[in-house]
Amino acid sequence: MTGAATGRKAAIIGGGVIGGGWAARFLLHGWNVSVFDPHADAARRVGEVLSSARRSLPALADVPMPIEGVLTFTEHLDAAVAGAQWIQESVPEDLALKQAVLAEVQAHVADDAIIGSSTSGFKPSELQHGASDPSQILVAHPFNPVYLLPLVELVAGSASEAGTMQRAREVLASIGMAPLEVRNEIDAHLADRLMEAVWREGLWLVNDDIATTEEIDNSIRYGFGLRWAQMGLFETFRLAGGEEGMAHFIRQFGPALQWPWTKLTNVPELTEELVQKIASQSDAQSGARSIRELEAIRDRNLVGMLRMLKEQDWGAGTILKAHDDFLSSSAAPADDWSAPLRLLELSVLPGWIDYNGHMTEFRYVQVFSDSCEALLRRVGMHDEYVEAGNSWFTAETHNQFIDEVAVNEPMYSTVQVLLADGKRLHVFYRLHAADDDRLLATLEAMYLHVNTATGKVAAASDEAMQVLAEIAAAHAELETPEAAGRSVGQRSQD
Ligand SMILES: NC(=O)c1ccc[n+]([C@@H]2O[C@H](COP(=O)([O-])OP(=O)(O)OC[C@H]3O[C@@H](n4cnc5c(N)ncnc54)[C@H](O)[C@@H]3O)[C@@H](O)[C@H]2O)c1
Questions:
Q1: CB of 145 closer than 6 A to ligand 1?
Q2: Whose CA is nearest to atom 25 of ligand 1?
Q3: Does the beta carbon of 17 sit less than 6 angstroms from any atom of ligand 1?
Q4: 157 neighbors 123 (Cβ within 8 angstroms)
Q5: Which of 94, 118, 143, 177 to mutate for ligand 1's pocket (most ligand atoms within 8 Å of CB)?
Q6: N or C: which end of the chain has fewer CB within 10 A?
Q7: Residue 446 has pLDDT above 90, yes or no
Q8: End-to-end Cα spacing for the chain
Q9: Burial of 125 (C-beta count, 10 Å sphere; 0-12/13-18/19+)
Q10: What is the CB-side half-sphere exposure of residue 42 using CA atoms within 13 A?
Q11: Are 373 and 62 a contacting pair, CB within 8 Å?
Q12: Residue 164: which H helix or E strand, with range?
């Protein structure tokens, strides 16, 4: 069982790397999406981004995702934007082209639709210039891959209105993004300005034969890149100052900014020779793998890192946790319990496999444990419920490992409620491969409802019991799983 589709529509104008990522993020959050891109290959390219997103984005959630929306491609821009609540312009970075596209969009959209631009460099006031309703246009600058990275820089122009910005924040948060409002519009917003500073120094280091592209990348990914991913720049440097603090750190390292080899603002001339040098070093470093392979590696690594941060409730992981709460609170009340409830959609992460190349045993257990969390949240076990002294404790389990599953394979879990009598909850989970519904493993579990203050078994709340009783009554109509009640070593009931 997944949440409901939203019935809302997003129009994506320009279906390249970024437009494809936006399309995937909206679709997987239940929006219907229309793409307009005159390129002959646009549908294939968006389809490939969507396949990557389907493999990775659901693996970040521990609650049911909405039902995927419907994707359409249109031959004309007006058909794409008709009836859309959000229009995302993602055409190439050319101001005149963007202004022309925005003018055509505005001729066909509702007055209250929001038009976001993915521009990396232009200020919203430049995009608003000459527009029929400039207040509708804002910058919503995402980061590649748009379907995984939560950051979106939200920038208002001189004609923007507070109400539109507020609605924009709400829409972006509802699709799992973290809108960071850039308070003063500047060329290239915030993050690209920072990346540009590092990029400039990197170009100099290659230009001056100090380091190769690979050595520079290693200096980032083996060291400070890991620190930045979870603490950023200032918080990281705060720690470098030790107990004496940030001011001490700046006094200590500030003079280095004057050293002659720091070239913070100069840009090396991008001669053909330098471009070729960088390109051939990059080929030597990464050319053995295709772009698609590298994208898949990047996505798997990002999912692993984001999930770790989610476990720590830190940085981008805190955004994911808040998004789970949002998704579970906005899921449609499930009144159809006529089948086992679908709980998790996820895929096998690279760190989850054993020496045979298959998902290792304890990850099966983890998936069932996460499925249990998802079930208990569905029946109202949120933070307040636990803080009030209520919890379900696991009393007994029986696991069956039935089939192997390889790295990156998508999976889903379901639960069938066998008994819910107020104090006891007896359930049967199944884990399936998503591609062919193959049964991978099962877990039968008995939970006891406990008052954590007394440590004694106690009745669940009336609200929790009401939902559980409804599910249990519906599931009583289902066939009892053949393996339910089995003991170790018993492969069938006969
Ligand atoms: N690539 C990135 O990492 C990145 C990150 C953030 C923002 N951006 C910004 O996103 C925008 C798009 O960048 P991209 O990297 O996706 O470029 P891209 O070249 O991959 O895609 C652009 C797409 O726009 C289509 N297009 C061209 N003219 C069009 C028109 N008139 N109407 C509709 N579609 C049209 C092209 O066919 C192409 O598919 C740019 O403004 C860029 O600055 C890019």
A1: no
A2: 14
A3: yes
A4: yes
A5: 118
A6: C
A7: yes
A8: 32
A9: middle
A10: 23
A11: yes
A12: helix 162-174
Strand, coil or helix: 345: strand
- DSSP for 210-277, please give it: S--HHHHHHHIIIIIHHHHHHHTTHHHHHHHTGGGHHHHHHHHHGGGGGSTT--SS------HHHHHH
pTM of the model as a whole: 0.80
pLDDT of residue 3: 44
CA distance 477 to 480: 9
Per-residue pLDDT reduced to its tens digit, 99-157: 999 999 999 999 999 999 999 999 999 999 999 999 999 999 999 999 999 999 999 99
Nearest C-alpha neighbor of 367 from the set 468, 449, 309, 443: 443
State if residue 3 touches ligand 1 by the CB under 6 angstroms criterion: no
Largest CA distance in the chain: 82
Q: What is the DSSP letter of 58?
A: G
Determine the length of the chain: 494
Residue 311's CB is within 10 A of a number of other CB atoms, namely: 11
Ligand 1: does its nearest atom lie under 6 Å from the Cβ of 14? yes
DSSP string, 168-216: HHHHHHHTT-EEEEESS--TTTTHHHHHHHHHHHHHHHHHTTS--HHHH
CA of 251 to the centre of ligand 1 (A): 43
Q: Is the CB–ligand 1 distance for residue 22 below 6 Å?
A: no
Concatenating the DSSP letter of every residue in 265-276 gives S------HHHHH
Q: Which of 48, 74, 90, 108 to mutate for ligand 1's pocket (most ligand atoms within 8 Å of CB)?
A: 90
Angle at Cα 351 formed by Cα 346 and Cα 357, nearest 5°?
90
Token code pair at residue 190 = 């915030």
Token readout for 105 is: 């969009």
